[in-house]
């Protein structure tokens, strides 16, 4: 699936970032963990249910201003879709939360 | 390379061998640890801190039944405070709603609830306990809690034809993952193997059914299927490689590279009461023994797959051949593959009648 730009991703239940003080940052998921590097960490930290996909894209485009904006957008959409398939993200609808994914 | 191991990723904490169930395929050793010998809350808490410092990400609380520990809430809190992701692998039997809420508040991240099937009668027969109905109640309670849930169905010949019903049970629950884990043949399961191993027809049908379910449920429920490796062409990458990713700690504090390692003769296991986790991981004889490739015989030594399956499972090699250094006989290239084929022939042969009421060897309980 391709995430809708107006939807608000947030980490699914059972998925969380480890604490900031730890040597490497990981996204914990049931039965697995993803090590996060610069851009992936920047994306995940913004999946808090308050920002829309569009807002996350635009924040990352500013942060990585030397990169081609379209490439940044495509990378983010691909990454979010993958995390959704792995059940790490829920997307809540805008404006009211009527999504079937929401728990 | 036998040294310079990367840190383990997961700590499998067998908190106790006590359990209200008596499953005929229990992965615990035949010789169970006594309650009086179990590690204290304080030692476990230190182990969690040492684990997190060594780079471990996740603690899997298991047993026996981990909820049989009266300090389970404290242990969850200690592991979480140490910085670990805390997973509780449970039968759900000793659980009530108050205890469940306490566990969630203590920081439990994920619960893996085991089922012995979808039908009450056969599930109770396998577990030797009237357990199924209570598990269904636990499923209901979980719907109203913010706690990630995996359902784990242990699969074998007597329940593999219930996969559709198991899926329905999972879909009606709050689970984001369903594991269909075929029994692996060690310990109690090895003793009951001839009554548990599915037929090839059963396995083929189940693979088709689960493939369709996987497609239908993509993005909603993740489906994991563990095949009985006797039917595989290549061995499983047991534990992600010996001493590579996981450390298992027994109720007494012995550190093992896998659940069954104690069956291998001559291996000595260091104990966390006397040594630090890092010291054991890096230096103990048991973890060094089959780490890397130096121990490998042919055909593993020159095989392209040796970095993927690590020569398979040492315990299985020992159980089937009497030699822990043999190539896992599951591999079609193994010199002793015929041992596996003989078992499959017995299960799939014309004389293989469905057994109405097997003479199960039920798992006992420690003193």
Chain-wise SSE layout:
The complex is a heterodimer of chains A (103) and B (367).
Chain A: E1 8-11, E2 16-17, E3 26-29, E4 32-35, H1 38-46, H2 53-63, H3 69-85, E5 89-92
Antiparallel strand pairs in A: 1-5, 2-3, 3-4
Chain B: E1 10-14, H1 41-54, E2 58-62, H2 72-82, E3 85-90, H3 97-105, E4 110-115, H4 120-127, H5 132-142, E5 148-155, H6 163-171, E6 177-182, H7 187-191, H8 193-196, H9 200-217, E7 222-226, E8 246-249, E9 255-256, H10 277-283, H11 285-289, H12 306-309, H13 314-321, H14 337-348
Parallel strand pairs in B: 1-2, 1-8, 2-3, 3-4, 4-5, 5-6, 6-7
Antiparallel strand pairs in B: 8-9
How does this structure look, described?
The complex is a heterodimer of chains A (103) and B (367). By secondary structure, chain A is an alpha+beta fold. Helices cover 36% and strands 17% of the residues of chain A. Chain A has a 3-stranded antiparallel β-sheet, with helices on one face. In chain A, strands 1-5 form a two-stranded antiparallel ribbon. In chain A, 26% of the residues are buried. Residues 96-103 of chain A have low confidence and may be disordered. Chain B contains 14 helices and 9 strands. A 9-stranded mixed β-sheet of chain B has the order 7-6-5-4-3-2-1-8-9. The mean pLDDT of chain B is 93. Classes of the chains: A alpha+beta (103), B alpha/beta (367). The A-B interface holds A 1, 12-16, 18-19, 22-23, 26, 28, 30-31, 33, 84-87, 103 and B 9, 52, 55, 57-58, 83, 85, 87, 109-110, 146-150, 174, 176-177, 218-222, 224.
């Amino acid at each position: 699936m391709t995430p809708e730009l107006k939807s608000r991703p947030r980490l699914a239940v059972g998925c969380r970032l480890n604490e900031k003080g730890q040597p490497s940052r990981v996204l914990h998921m049931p039965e697995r963990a993803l090590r996060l590097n610069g851009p992936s960490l920047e994306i995940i930290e913004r999946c808090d249910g308050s920002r829309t996909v569009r807002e996350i894209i635009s924040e990352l485009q500013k942060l990585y201003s030397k990169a081609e904006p379209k490439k940044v957008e495509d990378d983010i959409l691909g990454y979010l879709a993958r995390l959704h398939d792995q059940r790490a993200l829920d997307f809540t609808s805008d404006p009211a939360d009527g999504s079937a994914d929401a728990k | 390379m036998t040294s310079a191991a990367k840190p383990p990723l997961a700590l499998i904490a067998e908190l106790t061998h006590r359990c209200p169930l008596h499953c005929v395929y229990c992965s615990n050793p035949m010789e169970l640890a006594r309650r009086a010998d179990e590690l204290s809350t304080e030692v476990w808490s230190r182990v969690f801190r040492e684990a997190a410092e060594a780079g471990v990400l996740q603690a899997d609380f298991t047993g026996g039944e981990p909820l049989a520990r009266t300090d389970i809430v404290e242990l969850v809190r200690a592991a979480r405070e140490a910085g670990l992701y805390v997973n509780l692998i449970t039968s759900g039997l000793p659980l009530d709603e108050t205890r469940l809420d306490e566990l969630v508040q203590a920081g439990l991240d994920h619960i893996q609830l085991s089922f012995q099937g979808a039908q009450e009668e056969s599930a109770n027969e396998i577990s030797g306990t009237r357990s199924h109905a209570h598990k269904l109640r636990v499923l209901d309670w979980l719907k109203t809690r913010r706690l990630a849930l995996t359902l784990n169905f242990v699969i074998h010949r007597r329940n593999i034809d219930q996969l559709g019903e198991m899926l329905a049970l999972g879909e009606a629950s709050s689970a984001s993952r369903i594991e269909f884990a075929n029994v692996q043949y060690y310990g109690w399961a090895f003793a009951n193997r001839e009554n548990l191993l599915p037929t090839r027809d059963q396995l083929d049908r189940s693979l088709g059914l689960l493939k369709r379910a996987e497609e239908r449920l993509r993005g909603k429920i993740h489906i994991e299927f563990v095949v009985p490796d006797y039917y595989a062409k290549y061995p499983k990458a047991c534990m992600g490689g010996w001493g590579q990713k996981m450390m298992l700690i027994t109720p007494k504090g012995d550190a093992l590279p896998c659940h069954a390692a104690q069956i291998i003769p001559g291996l000595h296991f260091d104990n966390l009461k006397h040594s630090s986790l890092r010291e054991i991981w890096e230096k103990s004889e048991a973890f060094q023994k089959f780490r890397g490739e130096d121990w490998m015989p042919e055909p593993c030594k020159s095989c392209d797959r040796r970095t993927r399956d690590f020569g398979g499972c040492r315990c299985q090699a020992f159980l089937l051949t009497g030699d822990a250094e043999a190539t896992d006989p599951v591999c079609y290239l193994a010199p002793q593959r015929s041992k596996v084929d003989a078992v499959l022939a017995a299960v799939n042969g014309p004389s293989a009648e469905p057994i109405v009421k097997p003479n199960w060897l039920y798992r006992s309980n420690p003193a």
